[in-house]
């Protein structure tokens, strides 16, 4: 279907271990879906699988975007097709400035047939746009000269992710939110940025552990992920219920899924957990 990111019966394994056990989700442009769920339920795994991380093996199911089979594409091709992922833990790239990184990304996204070494978007045009977007995000212009995520604070990393989002203007954005350590200011940066960019041309999948982000970004739909499955779907009231009651009622309601959990190693210290 057009104007839609659709995920059908998606099964994903990491190092031979099944993590996602049949995810179904339809995200239309112009809507915001939130995925919530306890740590280790597979939220980041879903984000990585949609983007095409090579360590996350799709063993069954389909992912389509605007009628294109995403699973056939490399990550950079998915990006050129209009998909964007804001990382839960953005990687530092010392030696590459934020500005240079963005100029290359923007050039490649807006000119999908561009080959490496070919002309970039004009410096004047790029600078002007970058300045405007940074201003809207309340970022110091000098920030663009720093190396990407190198020594950035948590809030600065989030700003940099949202700056990418605003420069690239994807059709579908997956925002894998840092659950802990995001202070109120950083939350506001993310949510104001998303709200400013939100429109009929963009669909957003917000992944978050806490309800409070959803006080700022109003989701049209809320899904609860538990042990690699979406076990509940509803509107924003579902998020309020989680805020009030936590996740215990989910564990009690779906004990048959939890059994799988006890057989599986949980790596709480892994950087992709949480
Ligand atoms: P969430 O984002 O909901 O906290 P994750 O998708 O990060 O959950 O993790 C789901 C499960 O998959 C956890 O048990 C985690 O240990 C496992 N997992 C995810 N990525 C990896 C990886 N790269 N290596 C090993 N285990 C992983
Ligand atoms: Mg996660």
Note down, in words, how this protein is organized.
With 274 residues, the chain is an alpha/beta fold. 35% of the residues lie in helices and 27% in strands. The strands form three sheets. Strands 6-9-10-3-11-12 form a six-stranded mixed β-sheet, with helices on both faces. Strand 4 (56-65) and strand 5 (68-69) form a beta hairpin. The chain binds adenosine-5'-diphosphate and magnesium ion (MG). The site of adenosine-5'-diphosphate has 18 residues, from helix 1.
Which helices and strands occur, and which strands form pairs?
Layout (H helix, E strand, L loop, with lengths): L3 E11 L2 E12 L3 E5 L6 H9 L4 E10 L2 E2 L5 H6 L2 E4 L6 E5 H13 L12 H14 L10 E2 L5 H15 L3 E5 L7 H14 L5 E5 L13 E6 L2 E6 L1 H10 L2 H6 L1 H8 L12
Parallel strand pairs: 3-10, 3-11, 6-9, 9-10
Antiparallel strand pairs: 1-2, 1-4, 4-5, 7-8, 11-12
Helix pairs in contact: 3-5, 5-6
The site of magnesium ion has 5 residues, from helix 1.
Low-pLDDT regions: 264-274
> Count of helices?
9
CATH fold-level topology of the largest domain = Rossmann fold
Instruction: Label the structural class.
Output: alpha/beta
**What fraction strand?**
25-35%
């Amino acid at each position: 279907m057009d104007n839609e990111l659709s995920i059908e019966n998606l099964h994903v394994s990491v190092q031979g271990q099944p993590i996602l056990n049949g995810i179904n989700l339809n995200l239309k442009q112009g809507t915001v879906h939130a995925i919530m769920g306890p740590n280790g339920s597979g939220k980041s795994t879903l984000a990585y699988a949609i983007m095409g991380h090579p360590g996350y093996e799709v063993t069954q199911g389909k992912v389509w975007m605007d009628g294109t089979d995403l699973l056939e594409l490399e990550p950079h091709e998915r990006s050129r097709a209009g998909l964007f992922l804001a990382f839960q833990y953005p990687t530092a790239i010392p030696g590459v400035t934020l500005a240079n990184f963005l100029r290359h990304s923007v050039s490649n996204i807006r000119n999908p047939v561009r080959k490496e070494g070919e002309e970039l978007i004009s410096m004047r045009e790029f600078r002007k746009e970058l300045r405007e977007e940074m201003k809207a995000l309340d970022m110091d212009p000098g920030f663009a000269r720093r190396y990407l995520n190198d020594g950035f604070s948590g809030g600065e990393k989030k700003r940099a992710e949202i700056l990418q989002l605003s420069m690239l203007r994807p059709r579908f954005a997956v925002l894998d939110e840092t659950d802990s350590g995001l202070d109120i200011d950083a939350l506001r940066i993310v949510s104001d940025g998303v709200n400013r960019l939100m429109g009929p041309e963009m669909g957003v999948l917000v992944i978050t552990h806490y309800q409070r982000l959803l006080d700022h970004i109003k989701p049209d739909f809320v899904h609860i992920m538990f042990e690699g499955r979406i076990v509940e779907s509803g509107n924003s009231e579902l998020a309020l219920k989680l805020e009030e009651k936590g996740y215990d009622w989910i564990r009690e309601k779906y004990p048959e899924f939890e059994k799988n959990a006890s057989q599986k190693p949980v790596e709480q210290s892994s950087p992709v957990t949480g």
